[in-house]
Write a structure and sequence with these properties.
Strand 6 and strand 7 form a beta hairpin. By secondary structure, the chain is an alpha+beta fold. It is globular and about 60 Å long. Strands 11, 12, 13, 14, 15 and 16 form a six-stranded antiparallel β-sheet that branches. Strands 5-2-1-9-18 form a five-stranded parallel β-sheet, covered by helices on one side. Strands 6-7-8 form a three-stranded antiparallel β-sheet, with no helix packed on it. The protein starts with a strand and ends in a 5-residue tail after the last helix. The mean pLDDT is 96. The chain folds into two domains: 244 residues, 3-Layer(bba) Sandwich (FAD/NAD(P)-binding domain); 97 residues, D-Amino Acid Oxidase, Chain A, domain 2, CATH 3.30.9. It binds flavin-adenine dinucleotide. Flavin-adenine dinucleotide (FAD) binds next to helix 1, strand 2 and helix 6. The site of flavin-adenine dinucleotide has 36 residues, from helix 1, strand 2 and helix 6.
Length: 433
């Protein structure tokens, strides 16, 4: 089949490579020309490029099974596979900067037989008589029998053929900074990301590749007076005052390799392929990656859903008894079962977390949010196996439902999920040492 893919981010490239390896003729189109001759890469329009990324086991499994040499190239580029002490081997994630993952995928795509690359802007999807027939790229027509849109979270392509976007802003913003070990010193040796809940923010340490790591503050977008945190000194002072960040901001051991980076407009969104469930947008037009859904990234979940979503598509396309309408429906049904529950879980958790960060109490007449149930595992060990499945995404978020009653009882007795560290307002006002 002649396949045109709009967008060469991680999901577009995973899709392009795997389809080309199945013997299809693939043309991938991206407006980003890639790294400059000096190796720098500004990655305009992909705000998350330099923010911390965690690649959960599902991403590792997808790469190992579908693109094994890309996985090996990643390890050769410095990526590390780590798991929590005592955790099963299959729970290991990949620790690597997103920029390294994208460079590795791009290199693989450039040498892949059957995969052609166009650097250009996709203006629109060409559809005639209810059938996708290609892309318009910088005014020129690119013919295809199957069109896959992977143009990310802000895409408007073929909007008129789809139903509305469910959701919107998740209410949180990112502020992160990347560090590396000073010459000769060891890098961040955490076996897994360290995510802590402060009085009104999350703080995260994300180990990455080649002795690098990222520190992150994720706080309500409505927070005031955070301007100083966005300065180099302000960020480093704040990081030194947050318990789980402080060891990894130590200037004697680590040096920053970026300035503090702002990540705004973070969203929880979900969208069907076409106007309604079971109605494709057009024959031979499919959407993958962030063009389907986005989740508040602080939990680092979405690629663990987006790549298996594509793997499901591949299985349908491989099946000679299925046609392109079946492929569209299969993507929707898989997303309804596997992506939408996480979208709803994030919407509920983010809403209640924003309320708590603003000083509100949990409403015990409503379902207890997942983060609170997981925090209660420290008191009630019978919840720990459920929390393990939730964190590992080896089951959907409803795996926590049986613990609702027990955690509600704990909350009624006065227990509250603990927080650590100073309040955001105090971090933002720390005096210069
Ligand atoms: C701050 C942040 C942190 C995140 N952290 C994690 C994490 O830790 N773990 C995780 O699993 N997920 C994380 N995510 C989610 C993850 O980054 C996305 O799910 C992922 O980028 C989606 O890949 P994609 O290929 O669908 O889209 P993108 O990565 O957005 O790529 C889209 C591509 O399309 C191109 N493009 C767009 N429009 C056009 C056009 N009209 N013509 C031509 N080209 C076009 C762009 O240049 C780009 O290359 C995070 C997201 C954010 C915002």
């Amino acid at each position: 089949m002649q396949i045109a893919i709009a967008g060469a981010g991680p999901v577009g490239l995973f899709t392009a490579l795997t389809l080309a390896r199945r013997g299809h003729t693939v043309c991938v189109v991206d407006r980003d020309p890639g790294p400059a001759a000096d190796g720098s890469w500004s990655r305009a329009g992909v705000m998350q490029f330099l923010h911390p990324h965690g690649f959960r086991p599902q991403v590792r499994w997808a790469l190992q099974s579908a693109l094994p040499e890309v996985y090996d190239d990643l390890l050769a580029a410095g990526a590390e596979v780590r798991q929590r002490p005592g955790a099963p081997e299959e729970s290991a994630g990949i620790y690597c900067r997103r920029s390294v993952v994208e460079r590795t995928l791009r290199r693989a795509a450039r040498r892949q037989r059957g995969l052609r690359w166009i650097t250009g802007h996709v203006d629109r999807v060409l559809v005639s008589g209810g059938k996708a027939r290609g892309l318009q790229v910088d005014g020129a027509e690119l013919e295809a029998e199957l069109v896959i849109v992977a143009t990310g979270r802000s895409t408007r392509l073929a909007d008129e053929l789809r139903g509305p976007v469910e959701g919107g802003s998740c209410g949180f913003s990112y502020l992160s900074r990347m560090y590396r070990a000073r010459a000769g010193g060891p890098g961040c040796d955490l076996r897994a990301p360290s995510l802590a809940v402060g009085p009104d923010y999350y703080s995260l340490v994300m180990p990455q590749d080649s002795g690098t790591h990222s520190l992150l503050l994720c706080f309500p977008t409505s927070a005031r007076d955070t301007a100083l945190l966005r300065t180099e000194t302000g960020f480093d002072r704040a990081a030194a005052a947050v318990p789980n960040l402080a060891p990894w901001a130590d200037p004697d051991r680590f040096e920053p390799i970026t300035g503090p980076l702002v990540g705004g407009n973070l969203t929880n969104t979900y969208r069907l392929q076409g106007p309604a469930l079971g109605l494709p947008p057009a024959r031979g037009l499919l959407f993958v990656g962030d063009a389907v859904a986005t989740l508040n990234p602080v939990a680092g979940r979405y690629l663990s859903l987006a790549l298996p979503h594509v793997q499901h598509l591949l299985a349908v396309l491989d099946d000679p008894t299925k046609d392109l309408f079946d492929a569209s429906l299969a993507l929707d049904l898989w997303a309804e079962e596997n992506i939408r529950p996480w979208y709803l879980d994030h919407v509920r958790s983010d809403r209640t977390m924003l309320h708590r960060f603003a000083g509100g109490r949990l409403d015990l007449t409503e379902p207890i949010p997942s983060d609170v149930i997981c925090a209660a595992a420290a008191l009630d060990p019978s919840i720990a196996p459920l929390a393990g499945q939730y964190f590992g995404m080896t089951a959907g978020p409803d795996v926590l439902d049986p613990a609702q009653g027990r955690v509600r009882a704990l909350l009624r007795q006065g227990w509250q999920p603990p927080t650590v560290g100073p309040a955001l307002v105090d971090l933002a006002a720390l005096p210069v040492a």
